[in-house]
Amino acid sequence: SYTLTRKAFAPVAAAITKPGSTVQKLIETVIDYTVGSDVASGRAIPALTVLYAFWTFAGSGSLSVAGQAMSRPNGLDNDHPRKHRGNMEGLPLRLMSAHHSLVEIFPLFAAGACLAQVLAPGDQQILNLLGLHVLLKVFAFYPSYVVGFAPIRSLAHLLSVSAMVKVLWLLAKS
Question: Are 26 and 130 in contact (CB under 8 A)?
Fold first, then answer.
């Protein structure tokens, strides 16, 4: 999987995130409409982190809890909220699983974002790769996971992880 990610998808991620690319314009638009148009110059990485952290922990977390509540006839058992997870299926299970998948991959993004902010805060290619990861996870991976569309979910995951591998590779070589 690592070899496939590095050799097949990392070049694709790098090619579509060149400075001035459509991906860059999309990242800028998403930051403007979500975090705000008043984001200071040089603060795009923290802005992406705010968006991704909010969605990972608050947005999808809330939907995961709602899914757990939907899976029980009496709603969420707040005294033992994890007790019944093994009995979940369908949409409630996908809501919880999609949330867990975001939580599992977030540390990779956080490490890359922290390193990028310290080592290469002005590198547009690295910023675009970080942005591609966030866009794919929030707007392609998560929704396709929830609706059960595996091909898009898998492609979004592979490309987003490839973007992060490329970020770390570029930072290591700089």
Answer: no
Tokens of 116: 């990028």
148 in the Ramachandran plot: left (φ > 0), alpha (ψ -120 to 50) or beta?
A: left
Band the pLDDT of 40: cuts 50, 70, 90. Answer: low
State the CB neighbour count (10 A cutoff) for residue 58: 10
Q: How far apart are CA 135 and CA 54, in angstroms?
A: 13
The CB density around residue 34, as the number of other CB atoms within 10 Å, is 14
pTM of the model: 0.91
10-24 pLDDT, tens digit per residue, is 889 999 999 999 999
For the chain, the straight-line distance linking the first and the last C-alpha, in angstroms and rounded, comes to 25
* Percentage with pLDDT > 70 across the chain: 95
Q: Are 58 and 79 in contact (CB under 8 A)?
A: no
